[in-house]
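Re: the 182-residue chain
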Amino acid sequence: MSLLQSALEFLAGPGSLGAASRDQNDFVGQVVEMGDMKLRIKKVIAEGGFAFVYEAQDLGSGKDYALKRLLSNEEEKNKAIIQEVCFMKKLSGHPNIVQFCSAASIGKEESDTGQGEFLLLTELCKGQLVEFLKKVESKGPLSCDTVLKIFYQTCRAVQHMHKQKPPIIHRDLKQKNSYLPN
């Protein structure tokens, strides 16, 4: 696909992604190559309807990243995934938006799962806003200053998205999808 990097090479040998019926935890411990980076998959940190997010470490620098793995058999899902990658590339660089690093894909013909596979590498944000709020709220109500800082940063990110041509709409803005920088 021209929108994504041309190759995704797995260094761990046959079955490094596992069959579609295998647990996604089989991906943990594998080493994948994206561009000039070799990443060891450390652990699953989130899962959704058709994606898993892993913590992955660059073997060269030791830096940790978030690696989102998406599997798809449907052309419509493929288009949505490619659109997500394009949005992440376009929005990267804004201080209130998770930073895009790299993306890659392989077709279902080349995949051990029989599905198209997409990897999206971003900066790793270590904490969710919702976890931060639970900790702080146990000590009493949030100060107006804290509420305003959180709201202001969220508004800056949304404003940046809305200023794009055409505007980008988030559609799932909530505390659980908000992360704190490292």
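The helical segments are 75-91, 129-137, 144-162.
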